[in-house]
Write a structure and sequence with these properties.
single chain, alpha/beta, 8-stranded parallel β-sheet, 23% helix, GH13_cat_dom, GH, Glycoside hydrolase family 13 protein
Length: 564
């Protein structure tokens, strides 16, 4: 080799700090960080994360460089499904604090330049919700039951469910009450579905939106946004393997056209408030074109890109899904979103450690070294794409899923039911490590204190403290990536990519902006070194980069950014 030079992956030209883009329509390019409250930071030492713990750690998120924080549910709840069974939408569950803690968190975040997005769960509530309890008390035919889906059963004595729908968590989607009627719950029996054809339901959620907007929140991530409206007559599906069809075929309880009227109504509510308040759809749809309908100009602002999340670490597959996403979102003028992990799927450092095609929930750790290498590369690729990027807490530390949790500590309700989801979501929900060499690694205030899910002994080396200031650490890679993304107008903003010819297994594209130099992004998804013409000056790499004269030698499973 001649002129051989090894360049460190992260560059040192960030001393001036990131330059923020204009505030208007920040959500078109923003980086949004998901906080799972029970696993982020525990201020009172009971082993469960809380709002005061999050407030204390907000400076960390500011320094990471993200634009907004999305909080998973912290509402009053019996916790049958980790807070996604809400008993009171206007009250904070005591395990997380109280309403003053929520207000203080929003105020602190705004002072630090962070926006706050809260989860909203409109498809279903808790069976302990006042409305549902009244429906049980008042009996068949009462007004309260019309707010849910109560039906008589089938069979000679009403002993069979009203239709053949299956719960996402396993078993029938119907539960029979003492007076003989059945109620619908697409998830756990403790989560009865609202009837969104009823005016009182629509009025109530408009009021809930205003309650939190008045408190100062900047938007809502809408849980099961595709599920609110059911097909008229609640028709049978006629299949005994319904879960296998989810996300790939039309279903009478998901992605019905009637949901869009609801979100147009909500958009008008947000329009009553100053600032860029946003709606984000969690919408599992059969196609990206269907997902794009949720983000038409008068509906939501963003929709999660689950098609991208489900794509393997493969150049051909990634290019195809990027093209499909940009085309579908471009048709409606909406920004794409990109996400690799969240609280419902195995962390991508573990998914990519396993063979392709293994799905999005797994209990095999795979090759940890390969998984981390691919996860870092995938994250840089995600940050370079046009649109908004989501980060799930702990991925910036390179955390793997905890795949060997004992059965007796698992809290995922679907784990304890038959024929439902795999039920292994607890592995991505283990509390994150902050500091120290012993559990709970700064998650709680006391060394050796409790943690609602056990943390691995190996996590001391992955803590925020252990990685801060360490060249090449995953945390510093994320900090550098987000800072450069803000400094370089060609990254994040815009709505398209220019593909560059590259060897098989390599993804390469150019991003350009009206101001500033173009950026070339190269991802080598193979397990081998690959040579390409030197594209310019290195901005950032997920691995060290070797330059050999007029060529760059791409490391296996790596992504690099270049000013061309």
């Amino acid at each position: 080799m001649t002129d051989l030079q090894t360049l460190p992956g992260a560059q040192d030209d960030l001393a001036a700090g990131p330059t923020a883009r204009p505030d208007a329509e920040w959500w078109r390019h923003g980086v949004i960080y998901q906080v799972y409250p029970r696993s982020f930071a525990d201020a009172d030492g009971d082993g469960i994360g809380d709002l005061p713990g999050i407030r204390a750690r907000l400076p960390y998120l500011r320094d990471l460089g993200v634009d907004a924080v999305w909080l998973s549910p912290f509402y009053a709840s019996p916790q049958a499904d980790a807070g996604y069974d809400v008993s009171d939408y206007r009250r904070v569950d005591p395990m997380f604090g109280d309403l003053s803690d929520a207000a203080g968190l929003v105020e602190d975040a705004h002072e630090l330049g962070l926006r706050v997005i809260v989860d909203l769960v409109p498809n279903h509530c808790s069976d302990q919700h006042e409305w549902f309890q009244r429906a049980l008390r008042d009996g068949p035919g009462c007004t309260a039951r019309q707010r849910f889906h109560f039906r008589p059963g089938r069979g000679a004595h009403g002993e069979l469910p009203p239709n053949d729908w299956e719960s996402i968590f396993g078993g029938p989607a119907w539960t029979r009450v003492d007076d003989g009627e059945w109620y619908l719950h697409l998830f756990a029996p403790e989560q009865p579905d609202f009837n969104w054809e009823h005016r009182a339901v629509r009025d109530e959620f408009r009021s809930i939106l205003r309650f939190w907007l008045d408190l100062g929140v900047d938007g809502f991530r809408v849980d099961v946004a595709h599920g609110l409206v059911k097909a008229a007559g609640l028709p049978d599906i006629g299949s005994s393997d319904q879960l296998a069809l989810l996300g790939s075929a039309p279903m009478p309880f998901f992605d019905q056209d009637g949901v869009h009227e609801i979100y147009r109504d909500w958009r008008r509510v947000l329009g009553e408030y100053a600032g860029d308040r946003i709606l984000v759809a969690e919408a599992w749809t059969p196609t990206l074109e269907r997902a794009a309908q949720y983000v038409r100009a008068d509906e939501m602002h963003q929709a999660f890109n689950f098609s991208y999340l489900c794509t393997d670490w493969d150049a051909t597959a990634l290019r195809e899904i990027v093209d499909l996403t940009l085309s579908a979102m471009g048709e409606v003028g909406a920004p794409p979103t990109w996400v690799l992990s969240n609280h419902d799927v195995t962390r991508h450092a573990t998914r990519f450690a396993n063979p392709p095609g293994a799905g999005i929930q797994m209990t095999t750790p795979g090759d940890r070294e390969v998984g981390l290498r691919r996860a870092r590369a995938a994250s840089l690729l995600m940050f370079a794409l046009p649109g908004s990027a989501y980060v799930y807490q702990g991925e910036e530390l390179g955390l793997p899923d905890v795949t060997d949790l004992p059965d007796e500590v698992r809290a995922d309700p679907s784990f304890h039911r038959d024929n439902g989801q795999d039920g292994f979501r607890d592995g991505c929900r283990v509390p994150i490590p902050w500091s120290g060499t012993e559990a709970p690694y700064g998650f709680g205030p006391t060394v050796g204190g409790p943690s609602w899910l056990p943390q691995p002994a190996t996590w001391a080396a992955l803590s925020v403290e252990a990685q801060t200031g360490v060249d090449g650490s995953t945390l510093e890679l994320y900090r550098a990536a987000i800072a450069i993304r803000k400094q370089q107008p060609a990254l994040g903003a815009g709505d398209g990519v220019e593909w560059i010819h590259a060897p098989e297994g390599v993804l390469a594209f150019r991003r350009a902006a009206r101001v500033g130099d173009p950026v070339v992004v190269i991802s080598n998804t193979t397990g081998d070194h690959v040579r390409m013409p030197l594209p310019g000056r290195l901005l950032l790499g997920s691995s060290d980069v070797v330059v050999d004269g007029s060529e760059v030698v791409l490391a296996p499973d790596s992504t690099s950014w270049w000013n061309s």
